[in-house]
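Can you give me the bound-state structure? Components:
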Amino acid sequence: MSGPPPDVYPYQPGDPRVPEGDRGSRILAPLRAEGARGVAIAIISSVVVFTAIVVVVVNSSGWPLIKESFFDPEVFAEAFPKILEKFWRNVFIFIVAELLVLVVAMIVAILRSLTGPVFFPLRVMAAAYTDLFRAIPTILVIALLGFGAPALQIKGVPDSDVFWAIVALVLVYSAYVAEVYRAGIESVHPSQVASARALGLSRRKTLRFVVLPQAVRRVIPPLLNDFIGLQKDSALIAFLGYVEGLRQAQIIQFENFDFTPYVALALIYIVITIPQARFVDWLVARDRRRRQVGAAL
Amino acid sequence: MTPDGDAALRIEGLHKSFDGLEVLKGIDLAVDEHEVVGLIGASGSGKSTLLRCVNLLEPIDRGRILIEGEEITARGVDVNRIRQRVGIVFQAFNLFPHMSVLRNVTLGPVEALGLSRDEAEARATELLERFGLSDKRREYPDRLSGGQQQRVAIVRALAMNPDVMLLDEVTSALDPELVAEVLNVIRGLAAAGMTMVIATHEMGFARDITNRVCFLDDGVILEQGPPDRIFTAPRHERTQRFLQGIIDAGRM
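Here's the bound-state model for the whole set.
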């Protein structure tokens, strides 16, 4: 016999080698518990399964055609730098939009959580805004503002595609993020507010020092969700004819009658998204480590 | 009776209802400076509600509450200023989990009293030291034991330099072996002359440190007097039954 008997779970609860709760990888966790023999079996079975899939796909009758139109190395080599160059425009757009969303959404969420009859109109406006902009498709908002606003030819109103695209993205995503913030604000226990008010802190200071810091910490993962959505939706600006990543990929596709440029762009989106997810995991884990016993190891 | 201005805390004819259910049905209570008053009574008798009313965390329906002669339940009173004079410690500690111990203690003095951060930190450090918590100042609340958390909560209230301290079942959420360290802190406060109103289930403790015990029953103070008399010769039949229940449960 080699290795521990399979029915003995080698780690005690709280062992740092066991990934903790909700942020641990559910894919790898059982493996770590199984030990060396388990890992060996997992590797062998993975190699067999994935080789089988590759062999079947590559030998299927349609594969050469698929390879030529989606994975053409020559087209890829030509398209990738061009698309990447234009993709920086997306990066600019979504970073500016994200910074604005953080602020606008917070204002909307705070307006909506105000109590007292005086603030009724503000609450109504905030609620109407979120309802409205969560209902309208993003591409429609982009079309309305991107084509519509410049068409008015009002003095002082910018007619830049990028400007209106950013406005549209901020309007749509602030509605989502405001709801995320609001959920965070409401998740802070009333006893925290009582505690702060009991110290003589005003409502505003209670919100600022006690409620919002806890609320924002809790909503960082769902916030990233919305930001990834926003980053992907920056491609909708192609609809206005603005040459960013997607539009550039489309142009190259027309020239070559080949879909590889789209695959190249997809790859860029994947590559920028995954590090963000890991960064947020790290951020949440660090915060938890600092605050709690047991997670320090 | 002391004249109006003398009482540190005076409650007159206090009524409070929640959704039509009357929890306090006319409370009259005067607490002198340096006096320690214990509130005993079954769960739901109104002890916590009474304390929350005194700290204006609950609006009252009728009656008035005065602190050193100033009516705090009057219209137009600045509630934040009043709360700065009345410290409250809760059963569940309610520390701010995202702040270090030091920041928990200095938040009120800096943001409500307007002290400079240096000044507030110096005072907080001194208080933490006095209560054996100086090595915990950089820790976060979740890393402390329940007893330590509750001591921090007491220090946080004390840092506001209140005229009156209200303690709401401060040991009820603690493991038995952690109760003593918190009770010792309160004992120290009583010895130092802090005016306190203490809602508690710890009868031995109430008997030890209070000057007066009030038995709350169904929203009124049914009986009050020196602890020795209340615990040995309660006059009211319901007080007798309540205390007998505590003795039967082995909690006195």
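A couple of observations. The two ends of chain A are 32 Å apart (CA to CA). Residues 1-59 of chain A form one domain.
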